Structure formats: structure tokens, C-alpha cells
Amino acid sequence: MLDTNHDNFKETGVLFFIFGATGDLASRKLFPAIYSLYREGKLSDKFAVIGLARRERSREQFHEDVLNSIKEFARYKVTPDDPEWTSFVEHFEYMSLDINRVEAFNELNIAAGRLENQFGITGNRLFYLALAPDLFGSVAHNLKAGGLLESGGWHRLVIEKPFGFDLPSAEKLNKEIREVFEEHEVYRIDHYLGKEMVQNIDVVRFANAFFEPLWNNKYIANIQITLGETVGVEDRGGYYDHSGALRDMGQNHMLQMVTMMAMEPPSRLHPEDIRDEKVKVLRSLRPFASPEEVRKHVVRGQYTEGQANGKVLPGYRSEDKVDPNSNTETYFAAKVYVDNFRWAGVPFYIRTGKRLPLKTTEVVVEFKNMPENVYHGNKTNLQPNLLVFRVQPMEGIYIKINAKRPGSEGVIVPVAMDFCQSCQVGLNTPEAYERLLFDAARGDSTYFTRWDEVALAWQYVDRIASAWTEDASDLRPYPAGSWGPDEAHALLEQDGFHWWPVNGQQESEVVWVTNRNE
């Protein structure tokens, strides 16, 4: 919901508490996001940041860390002698904190009060836990015991995924947090919901009269969602071998994008009404009644040694901190059904994996084809119309239609009309964390996941994970650098479909009409 205390925080101010301030997330995403908000005037001078971690750092060392972070990862350039930088970094403090000591939180509260007096902040406090999830509950309780929730303004808790390992662990974690914070004060980040083109899905659907009437099972044949990563597990081998692609990507990013594509128009443009519609989609997901159904509709794979760009890539079981006999999936593809009036019978195909040929996220809407025995269908091979949302790396939308080839006698070819959003704004486009941090500070929870969303997603995913635990024999190998196991392609072929080429691999026969300055 849009918090009832969402008055203009530029005027009332906000104090950010960054737990895990010496970690990778703070360096790569959070500090650059705060700097961008400041440069764009979305933060006034009434703000402060307290970086918190176990490591000892002086204030000067912490300022140097923040400077290096912004130099490397921020959209805006910075130099140490820039007066604007000097003014910005004066708002940053660092404190070494033992999160298991309530006395340390008492000291933190004293420091927070001092900063609020210094910068005219009226008690608004945002706690960002860039920590392991098993620490969320104890930190939340110590925030309360240390008096940090007794200031006069609002208090919000921002937490990162993974939110639990399965439904029981998520319920336990949620119970611990809810003993301290109300649901409307908890902001669960799924950074994919902060991406420009994911947020554009709702706008394209609901703000264009020629899309919404077609957005149903009468006109749409299938929807394909691809989230590909070229990297392996890198330094996350220990975590990933315990998690796998299903829990790491499926429970959150993939199902969230399904809800964005399938949700009904909300009655109001209010965060709770929008999230209500997403929950209805998750409730409508067709559950897998047995392990046999899971094996019929879900394919899982694990990358083996392969090649990409002339470079030999190691197999998953050879990666650092990975069990040499691991049965953890690094890829999965699934056929998902949303059993409601709008989508009955339309398959949603989702796939994600590591060591794929491209780093890309795309959503393809394939419309039903024209009848083959009428008009041009009986003398030419008509291609289905496509609407494609490109989420990354290039942001944009393209629509593929059929048209007559210029100068020919009735030869029909696919024509793709391409809108490149990245080309319009350049590479200096706002990052997902900037949008989400800004939304959290102003109390807009639209693109954060509510507890019932989390619970329903885990309920759906746990059925798949349970079937895999019972029988690991269906783990399919695929060479690193390929598009996954052959069984993932057969999943669509048995329905008469195929995976469409993704960003950077367009069909050669398509005639392109583009807005790019090429």
C-alpha cells in the first residue's frame, strides 16, 4: 500500500541504515543508487546514511569506499574535488556493529538521533538489510529492543531475496519479522520488478486500446519468458549448490513476470489493488498433482563442459565449492498454465539458466495465426504475429507483423517494428535499485512483493522441488554455451510451438523498421 505517512520525504527527510555496508550489493547497487537520486534532486539535503557492518572502518575509509563504488558503478561521473560530491558524502557515517548485541543497537540509536538533528530529519527511518536471510529476524528484534523504532516518523524494512528456502522456512522468517514490523512496513525486493521494461508491461497492456481486447486465450497462442545468463556460479558455488535455478530464479523473478503478463486490470492505480491482481494469478496457477506431472511439464538441466567465443567453459560439477556429484539444476524450463477465464488453455513457457549463449531477458507474446485455408494463408507460409518485451540488455519493444515485400508480386514477409528504449535515453538509464529505493523511501510498495505473493509462489515451487527430491534421474546435461537440454525444446514442439530467437538473434528473413540511429 502507499504508506499513509508518505508525505514528501524530501521535506521531512529520511535516514538510511545500510546493514552489510562493506558487501558487494551495497557497493555495486545501493551507494550508486543513492548518489543518482541525490544528483537528480529526488533526495534533498535532509537525508543521511549510516553504513553498518562488522568490519572496522574509519569514517574517512568509508567515504573512500563510497567514492570508489560510485566511480565504478554509478551512472553519474564524480571527482573527489567536486563541491557537490563533498556535500553529498558528508551525509555518510559508518559504524562497526555486532548485530547480536542489543547494547550496540542502543549506541546506533544515539548516533541516529544525532544525525537526524544535524540534517533536520523528522524520524523517518529506512532499514536496508543486505544480509543473509537467517539474520533478518534477529536484526528486526534488536532494532526494536535498541529503541530504533521509537522515532517520530515512519519505519520501513527493506529485505533482499532469498526469502526462505521453501514455504516452511519462509513462514518462519515472516513470523519473526512480523513480530516487529507490520506488513505495510516490510518491502521485499525483487529487483526485476524495478527494471524499466518490466514496469512498462502494465503500461503497454492497459494504456493501449489495440492490445487489451486481444490479451486473452481467443487471440494469444502462448507466452514465452526467457531469462538467460552467460555466467556460471562464479563465487556463489556454495549457495547455489544448495539453491539451484528453481529457487534462485523461478520462485521470484520468473513467477513475478508471469503475474505481470497475466494479471487483470486493477480497479485503481493503487499499490494494494495492483498486488491483489498479481495474487489472483498465483492462486490460478495449475498445480502439479504428481511427480509424473512435474516430469511431463518441467525440464531441468545442469551445464557440462562446453565452449563460448572460442573459450573452454568448465562444467558445473567442476566449479569451486560445488559437490562433484551434485544433482542441483542450473537450468529449468516449464510449461505453466493460469487456469482462469482469460487464460484457460494458453501455455506460459518459462526458462532460465546459467551458461547460456546470451545474457538476456525477454517476454514473447505469440498471437494465434490466421486460418491457413483462407486469403493468403493458402498460398504462403504466414508467420504468427509477435509482441516482444526486451528487458535486458537492450530495453525496448518490437512487434512482428506480416506485410507484402516491396516490389514483389504478393510475396509476404515478416516485418518487425522495433522501438528501442535504450537508444532513446542512452546507457544513462535509471537502474532498478534506484527506482526501488526511491519507491521505498516514499512509501510506494507497488513493485515489492507482499507476503501472500511470496507464500503462493513457494507453494507452487515446492511441489516441483519435492518431485525432484524423490527422483533425481531426470536431470539433463547441456553443454555450457548452449540453449539448454534438448528436452526443453521438445516441451514446446509437442504443442506445435518453438522457442523464438531472443535479443541479438533475430530471424534473418525479417524486414526491420526501426527507430535506432544506425
Features:
single chain; 518 residues; alpha/beta; ten-stranded mixed β-sheet; seven-stranded mixed β-sheet; 15 helices; 19 strands; 35% helix; globular; disordered N terminus
Biggest sheet architecture: 10 strands, mixed
The helicity comes to 25-40%
Number of helices: 15
Q: Give the strand content.
A: 15-25%
Mean pLDDT figure: 91
Number of strands: 19
Whole-number radius of gyration? 24 Å
Strand order of the largest sheet: 18-8-11-12-7-13-14-15-16-19
* Low-pLDDT sequence parts: 1-6
What is the global morphology?
A: globular
**What gap, in angstroms, lies between the N and C termini?**
43 Å
Structural class: alpha/beta
Structure description:
The protein is α/β, with parallel strands linked by helices and about 525 residues long. It is built from 15 helices and 19 strands. The protein has helices at about 10, 25-40, 60-75, 85-90, 100-120, 135-145, 165-180, 195-205, 235-260, 270-285, 290-295, 420-425, 430-440, 450-470, 485-495; strands at about 15-20, 45-55, 90-95, 125-130, 155-160, 185-190, 220-230, 300-305, 305-310, 310-315, 330-335, 345-355, 360-365, 385-390, 395-405, 410-420, 450, 475-480, 510-515. Helix 2 links the parallel strand 1 (about 15-20) and strand 2. The longest helix is centred in the middle third of the chain and has 26 residues, at about 235-260. The two termini are about 45 Å apart. Mean pLDDT is about 90; it is low at about 1-5.
